[in-house]
Write a structure and sequence with these properties.
single chain, about 475 residues, mainly alpha, 19 helices
């Protein structure tokens, strides 16, 4: 009980100290407190995390990787496109689209700002995207970007910690409620457990309060929107800079000739030529009415998959799963049962079924040639070497964007062009059919070899038993 009395005194003292701080706080501070973002801090931290990741994906190192690795994948070249300009255009369009989604969320938050300029964020951002007009100087210089990004990163980390600590506090409080309702414990033991848990809850609340003050929770809408707006403007300026889009290069973002030049090789900073495939479009050059054909409208059209692709037929994710299942079967054909084969056949669309039947027509029932089986294994390995990465990338890309998998520090490392989304349907189905034909042979070969081994083993056992009987 002495401990309980001491806790009551500590609580009272802390409460009085908080009251004293509140009474001495200026009125202006109270107004800021009322306009703090509160529980929206977690959504805002997610937006900041995405912007930080977008900025990193536009670094010299990342752009070189896109140019030399991502668009050079064998699978991309075989079934997506071997047009480098087109692929760079898809990479650029996806980055712009990701930024646009973040900007839409920021626009909603900006409506709660007191600053009229921030409340006009949506209009100002559209103007900047279409014309490069930046009346409030929201595009930051390199040194400013570095400082702002470090600050946002600290906010993201602290807000993520706050989320975990609040979750822990909720668990503790639920545990206390259950303990108070419980009648199974001895009274004295229960009282001690209640005291211990209340003490933990008390200090956990202090930790949560401390983190709220240091994180985004107690920041005003104006403060967070200003950071987000500047970051969004700067990221878009960097995208246009790297891919050579738009109205010249912002003076505050001098173009790096180390990596940006690999995408935009012109050394003349006044040049505004498009080098990212579809972005160099007569529609962009000829249309003058930006309201009818905005930058984002044209960009969205670039990401619309052609009718001949898996994305247009909504089969990209299904085929990715199918390829991964086939890949597992090819690696261990001896473990594949009849039911598993039937399951795979059930996953096949009519187009693949018909082509598979045509390929298997006339094939004998015997699969006993080890040389042919070895050739099929090599052939399937070569196909999977370029097809499998696109299938796995498709699953990863989808999972990173699913609502259930989102968190405060989301990082997206796969571009849509590296998946099956823009893959040619006919070419992909031809590759899948080839995998199935080969799998059919090596599966039957493994079964025949196993059956032969069992038969020989039974014959040996029979011979041994005959010898024993005769002796």
């Amino acid at each position: 009980m002495a401990l309980e009395t001491w806790l009551i005194k500590v609580k009272t003292a802390i409460s009085h100290s908080f009251d004293a701080v509140r009474t001495t706080t200026p009125t202006t501070k109270l107004v800021v407190k009322k306009s703090s973002v509160g529980v929206l801090a977690f959504e805002i931290a997610g937006l900041m995390s995405k912007l930080l990741h977008l900025w990193q994906s536009l670094s010299d190192k990342s752009i070189i990787r896109v140019r030399n690795d991502s668009i050079s994948l064998e699978g991309v070249r075989k079934i997506v496109s071997n047009d480098e300009a087109f692929l760079l255009g898809l990479a650029c369009a996806e980055m712009v689209e990701n930024l646009r989604h973040v900007a839409k969320s920021v626009s909603r938050i900006s409506k709660r700002c007191e600053d009229l300029n921030l409340r006009s964020f949506e209009r100002l951002f559209d103007e900047f995207a279409n014309s490069g007009y930046d009346p409030h100087g929201w595009v930051l210089g390199w040194k400013e970007v570095e400082g702002k990004n470090k600050k946002m990163d600290r906010y993201v980390t602290t807000t993520a910690t706050l989320y975990r600590e609040m979750d822990e506090l909720s668990i503790m409080e639920n545990g206390l409620r259950k303990l108070l309702q419980c009648t199974d414990h001895d009274a004295s033991i229960k009282e001690q457990k209640v005291i211990d848990l209340e003490q933990k809850i008390f200090w956990q609340r202090q930790e949560v309060k401390y983190l709220k003050d240091r994180s985004l929770w107690n920041r005003s809408f104006d403060t967070v929107t200003s950071m987000l707006a500047r970051s969004i403007f700067t990221v878009l300026a960097r995208i246009k800079l790297v891919f050579g889009i738009g109205h010249g290069y912002p003076a505050s973002l001098p173009r790096s000739l180390s990596a940006s030049a690999t995408v935009h090789p012109s050394e003349n900073p006044s040049s505004c030529n498009f080098v990212s495939g579809p972005l160099k479009s007569p529609r962009l050059e000829e249309k003058k009415d930006h309201h009818a054909h905005t930058f984002f409208d044209l960009n969205s059209k670039l990401l619309k998959p052609p009718p001949t692709t898996l994305g247009a037929t909504a089969l990209a994710l299904h085929y990715a799963n199918l390829i991964i299942v086939i890949e597992k079967m090819i690696k261990s054909p001896q473990l594949v049962g009849v039911d598993a084969r039937d399951d795979v056949y059930g996953m096949l669309p009519d187009s693949i079924r018909s082509s598979l039947r045509a390929r298997l027509k006339g094939v004998g029932f015997s699969a006993s040639d080890p040389v042919l089986a070895g050739e099929w294994k090599d052939a399937l390995g070569r196909i999977l070497a370029w097809l499998s990465p696109l299938a796995h990338n498709m699953i990863k890309w989808q999972s990173e964007r699913s609502f259930e998998q989102q968190n405060l520090v989301q990082k997206t490392n796969v571009l849509l062009l590296q998946t099956l989304y823009f893959a040619n349907k006919e070419k992909t189905e031809a590759a899948i059919t080839e995998l199935l034909v080969g799998l059919n042979y090596i599966w039957r070969f493994e079964r025949e070899m196993n059956a032969k081994a069992l038969f020989e083993c039974s014959n040996i056992n029979g011979s041994l038993s005959n010898l024993q009987n005769s002796s």
